[in-house]
Amino acid sequence: MRALDLGSVDNGVENRIRTEGTPQPFDITADRKGDPIQLTGTFYNQFAGFEGSFKGNLHNHVLPRRWGGDVENARTHYAERGYDFFGAMDHDEVVHVPDLPDLITIPGMELSLNAGHLLTFGLDDFTFPTADDPEEEDLKRIRSIHDRGGLAVLAHPNKTAYTWEQLQQFCDAGLIGLEVVNSGVTGKTADTGKFDQGWKLLLQAGRYLVGLGNDDAHGPHTDLSEWGGVPQVAWTGVFADALTQTEIINAIKYGRTYVSQGPRIDSIEFVPEAAQLRVECSEAVACHFRGIDSYGGDTTTPDEGLQASTFSLDLAERGYRIRDYVSVIVEDAKGRRAWTTPIPVDITEKAR
Ligand SMILES: [Zn+2]
Ligand SMILES: [Zn+2]
User: Which of 22, 99, 199, 299 has the maximal Cβ count within 10 Å?
Assistant: First the structure.
């Protein structure tokens, strides 16, 4: 592949969380497999301090011709199912549809790249630069969105032809996030539409990305959450102070999102007196706390056969496994998961 000299732009999300969020420091006596240690560090928990989360599907194709002339069907489908926000777009076209009383509309575009698609939000002007070289054109477009303060999110990464090197170049050009689950891909390709392992590998390569989950609804020809006869759903949860377009966009800019196939995450708070990261969620059978090291963190489960809606990462017992980040992954009784965008953490360990 030809090297492109674009420099490193960095999408800035991680820096925003670390510098503008509320640091939650800790200094505790802990244990590493029986050895006494002192763990000192800080959580930069972007989810802290919000009353709760909102639920949305940011990727929907809402041209009237796709919906038999009536895009109302798409919005009422989601409004009736308790969704709070709804992304409205089409391929290479901006579509303006009004809000419903309980459903905020986020205008965007699904921009065609040379070997994939890009979701774009938060721009007033949806025009993009071109270039003769296809690789250079894709990078210029991502950089242009980033430089204008918009959001560039790679849609359905499994359904693209990009290489590992190109994905990293996209990140360095200002890609802010990934559609970690696109339920519409299931039934159309050989995979499940999940890119959680690719997300994790990019994080390990130093590329911090925000996670989104969407249905990619195209019309009433199928149930909106069913593709190829396989019922699927994916949505994005955001932590925000209010349900407005600006707040939803800011929640993505500041990494306050999670991707869900079903479980809902209501709060993630560090509790200093207990030295625990505590998660409140819908009824679940397990909660995984994953550090950047795939062995990091821990899984907490309620007693066998039971479900719980509160889970904790106990730093005194399991903190030694956390490094750099912690992602919270909630799993329900049907095996459906919700993954948070990673919470940055600095942690150092000393023998005592
Ligand atoms: Zn697409
Ligand atoms: Zn689409």
Answer: 199
CATH number at residue 146: 3.20.20.140
Q: Can you give the residue range of the structural domain that contains 324? A: 13-44+265-347
229: pLDDT strictly greater than 70? no
Q: How far is the CA of 159 from the centre of ligand 2 (A)?
A: 11
Looking at residue 300, what is its pLDDT? 73
- Same domain for 89 and 227, yes or no, is yes
Q: Are residues 248 and 308 in the same domain?
A: no
**Among 207, 230, 260, where does a domain finish?**
260
Question: 196-204 and 164-173 are packed helices; what angle lies between their axes, rounded to 10 degrees?
Answer: 70
Same domain, 40 and 180: no
Residue 231: per-residue pLDDT:
61
* Sequence letter at residue 31: D
332 and 283 assigned to the same domain:
yes
Q: Render pLDDT for 22-41 as a digit per residue (tens, 0 to 9).
A: 899 999 999 998 999 999 99
Question: If you ran DSSP here, which 8-state letter would residue 98 be given?
Answer: P
Of all ligands present, the nearest one to the C-alpha of 66 is 2
From the CA of 216, the nearest ligand is 2
| Alpha-carbon separation of residue 161 from 31, 117, 164, 167 (angstroms) | 46, 10, 10, 10
Q: Are residues 255 and 294 in the same domain?
A: no
Helix (H, G, I), strand (E, B) or coil at 221: coil
Element (H, E) at 179: strand 177-182
Q: Give the CA-trace dihedral at 299, 179, 264, 101, to 10 degrees.
A: 170
The mean of the pLDDT values for the chain is 89
Give the number of whichever ligand sits closest to the CA of residue 63.
2
- Same domain for 167 and 114: yes
Ligand nearest to the CA of 160: 1
Of the listed ligands, the closest to the CA of 116 is 1
What is the model's pLDDT at position 191?
Answer: 66
C-alpha 133 to ligand 2 mean position (Å) = 24
Between the CA of 117 and the centroid of ligand 2 the distance, in Å, is 8
Q: Is the pLDDT of residue 317 over 80?
A: yes
CA 119 to centroid of ligand 2, rounded, Å? 8
* Cα–Cα distances in angstroms (integers) from residue 316 to residues 36, 133, 295, 350, in the given order: 10, 53, 17, 13
Number of domains in the chain: 2
